[in-house]
UniProtKB/TrEMBL annotation:
One of its GO terms (molecular function) is protein kinase regulator activity. HEAT repeats lie at residues 16-53, 277-315. This is TOG domain-containing protein. Pfam families: HEAT (PF02985), HEAT_EZ (PF13513), HEAT_GCN1 (PF23271), HEAT_GCN1_C_2 (PF25801). Gene3D superfamilies: Leucine-rich Repeat Variant.
Length: 686
């Protein structure tokens, strides 16, 4: 044929074509190889007719019942491809991917010999593979289809091909169809795990996409996303691990933004959920630059927050060791603060699993409690409040903190020591021995009128928290001698300290404190505080009423004390904007913490018109806080049921004013993202 004119070949084409076609499917490989060269000459002479007359027949022969014939035919196609891929592919691909049945087997064999020529058609082939794989899920064909599809994807090694695979499969993992998501993540996982191609430039994109799949509701998708992430992070060396910490943090935030009302990321809660990303954090914490260490500690904290205790369990030692090591070194304060916060989060989550580290953690936290930086001290105090919960012999820790409070000359250190003492008393005051509790009690009551504001507030917080753990006799004595011993002629600092302590006691020990025979007296003292001319004392009166009302509504002890209601809501007319603001903030907390069906109608009827007035105040803080309070009390972020109930409670004038504010202002406020709740208790430092 090579030595014959085109016309002459065309004359004999009807005999040549069947001969070449038969030879391409011959049982002997050397015949098939020679036939492929002949096919090349034939095509060069007769053009598309060679394709039309030979390839469709070979394709249909791929399904021959005799496996030997089908295999020979496939190899014939392979031989043709090796020589003529640029001509054969545009002809074959559309036929192999045409519905209803994508021929994944033939595609996998073509892919193995097509080389880079296949890249041009990947954008058409990949969707067809996903359709075939999706259709086979849950059928006996699934494993075989997956093998063929993987073979096609793994044949890709050139730069453009890798980009096409990444873009196509990552896009398909966002599909609404769960089968398509499952198929695409399965292929992506296979590619990331087995390819010899370099995909390092796609790592940030992969981290973002795979961690986003950790929000998926389908177990198989979650598992494959986890395996893919594991495969990706295993390809990174130590420098790359450190470099990708910020990508992981971004990816986690991106995923969290799509978590509808869940506190945990489903993918992190799989067994060993966070192990694929732990090595990155560990490397950055131990060997990164200071700013990278801080980033990594914060990022690890964010991940811990989103992981269940069971899923964290296998990684506890891996996480805790490096963090303790860092705190032992001399790093700047922000690294220490970030590490302490992460350890506190871990303790809050897994608690008792960290028991083996208790001595090191205690030593580390106590050392940090004397740090020159205030943030480090506050974080250490918070960490101790979680550590105390798993302590079995807690007295030495209480004693150390008590001694620290008494010995501190620097008011700033004293304030954080008191915060730490309060932090351990609140959850575990019952772990203190009687003798120690008494000596702590004496120290606190002696300092209740302390001249320095921050110390006085912190002492009051400690004493208020301690009330929960006192015996009934001790508590009665504390109330009559200190918390309820109100006298207008007293030095104002002592009166302020007592008002703070009463407010905290009602918050943390409402059940024990607001009991007979002290109920009447508590109401009388709170009333006196509401009327006080000193603003900080009046603010504590508002707080104390708020905590009392919260306790009574949550425990179903209605109606609320009548003598307090009107003076409480009338603080919106106080001359100080700070008092007005605290009233609105108290109402906001009540709206968020008390279920709507337990809200006292007598309080709602009085307080809502006052908050409506608050929205018309000149002071922007009072105005904003009143708006937030109404949104919380009316539950405008949820539905209109509570709003309707409140409207029905009001007189016609007040009802119209409320409707007006809802329409003009509150709907808009309710649609804005909810800010972080401010702490109502001013004896706690942040």
């Amino acid at each position: 044929m090579a030595s014959t004119s085109k016309d002459m070949v065309l004359t004999f084409v009807n005999s040549l074509v069947p001969t070449v076609r038969r030879a391409l499917c011959d049982p002997l490989p050397e015949v098939r190889q020679a036939a492929a060269k002949t096919f090349d000459s034939l095509h060069s002479t007769v053009g598309v007719r060679a394709l039309d007359d030979i390839l469709p027949a070979m394709l249909s022969q791929l399904n021959d019942p005799d496996p030997a014939v089908a295999e020979s035919t496939l190899d014939g196609l392979r031989q043709v491809m090796a020589i003529k891929s640029r001509v054969v592919l545009p002809y074959l691909v559309p036929q192999l991917i045409a519905p209803p049945r994508v021929n994944t087997k033939a595609l996998s064999i073509l892919a193995s010999v097509a080389g880079e020529a296949l890249t041009k058609y990947l954008h058409k082939i990949l969707p067809a593979l996903l359709a075939a794989l999706s259709a086979s899920l849950g059928t006996p064909r699934e494993a075989q289809e997956l093998e063929y599809c993987q073979a096609v994807v793994l044949s890709v090694s050139d730069e453009v091909g890798v980009r096409t695979v990444m873009d196509n499969l990552m896009d398909s993992t966002k599909s609404d169809n769960v089968d398509v998501r499952r198929s695409s993540i399965t292929l992506l996982c296979a590619f990331c795990r087995h390819t010899h191609a370099d995909y390092s430039q796609y790592v940030p994109q992969l981290l973002r996409g795979l961690i986003h799949l950790f929000t998926d509701s389908n177990k198989e998708v979650l598992q494959m996303a986890w395996e893919a992430l594991n495969a990706v992070t295993k390809t990174l060396d130590s420098n790359q691990q450190t470099a990708h910490v910020s990508d992981i943090r971004q990816a986690v935030r991106f995923a969290v933004s799509d978590l509808k009302g869940q506190d945990l990321l489903p993918g992190f809660c799989l067994p060993k959920g966070i192990t694929p990303i732990l090595p990155l954090f560990r490397e950055a914490i131990l060997n990164g630059l200071p700013e990278v260490k801080e980033q990594a500690a914060q990022g690890l904290g964010e991940v811990i927050r989103l992981t269940s205790a069971e899923a964290l369990q296998p990684s506890v030692v891996q996480i805790t060791g490096p963090l303790i090591r860092i705190l032992g070194d001399r790093f700047n304060w922000n690294v220490k603060a970030a590490v302490l916060e992460t350890l506190a989060l871990l303790l809050a989550k897994v608690g008792v699993m960290l028991k083996q580290f208790l001595p090191q953690l205690q030593t580390t936290f106590l050392k940090a409690l004397n740090d020159s930086n205030r943030q480090v001290r506050i974080k250490a105090a918070n960490a101790l409040s979680h550590l105390i919960v798993i302590h079995t012999k807690a007295d030495p820790l209480f004693m150390e903190l008590h001694t620290g409070v008494r010995a501190a000359d620097d008011p700033a250190i004293r304030e954080t020591m008191l915060q730490a003492l309060r932090g351990v008393i609140s959850p575990a005051g019952d772990k203190m021995t009687e003798s120690l509790r008494k000596s702590v009690y004496v120290t606190l009551t002696n300092m209740l009128g302390y001249s320095e504001d921050a110390t006085r507030a912190a002492v009051a917080g400690c004493l208020g928290a301690l009330c929960r753990w006192l015996s009934p006799e001790q508590l009665n004595a504390t109330l009559s001698d200190h918390l309820l011993a109100d006298d207008v002629t007293l030095d104002w600092t002592l009166r302020h300290g007592r008002s703070s302590a009463l407010s905290v006691a009602l918050k943390e020990a409402g059940k024990q404190v607001y009991a007979d025979p002290n109920k009447e007296k508590i109401c009388r003292v709170l009333l006196a505080y509401l009327m006080a001319d000193r603003v900080p004392i009046a603010m504590n009166g508002v707080r104390g009423c708020g905590y009392l009302f919260q306790h009574l509504m949550l425990t179903g002890q209605l109606p609320l004390p009548q003598q307090l209601l009107t003076p409480f809501v009338r603080t919106m007319n106080h001359s100080s904007n700070e008092v007005k603001q605290i009233l609105a903030r108290v109402c906001c907390v009540l709206g968020k913490t008390v279920p709507p069906q337990q809200m006292a109608p007598e309080l709602l009827k009085l307080v809502i018109p006052m908050l409506v007035n608050g929205t018309k105040e000149k002071n922007s803080y009072v105005k904003a806080n009143s708006e937030f309070a109404l949104v919380a009390v009316l539950r405008l972020r949820f539905d209109d049921e509570m709003t309707q109930r409140c409207l029905n409670l009001l007189d016609i004038g007040a009802r119209e004013s409320l409707s007006d504010v809802i329409t003009k202002v509150l709907r808009k406020v309710a649609n804005q993202p909810e800010g972080k709740d401010e702490e109502l208790d001013d004896t706690l430092i942040t």
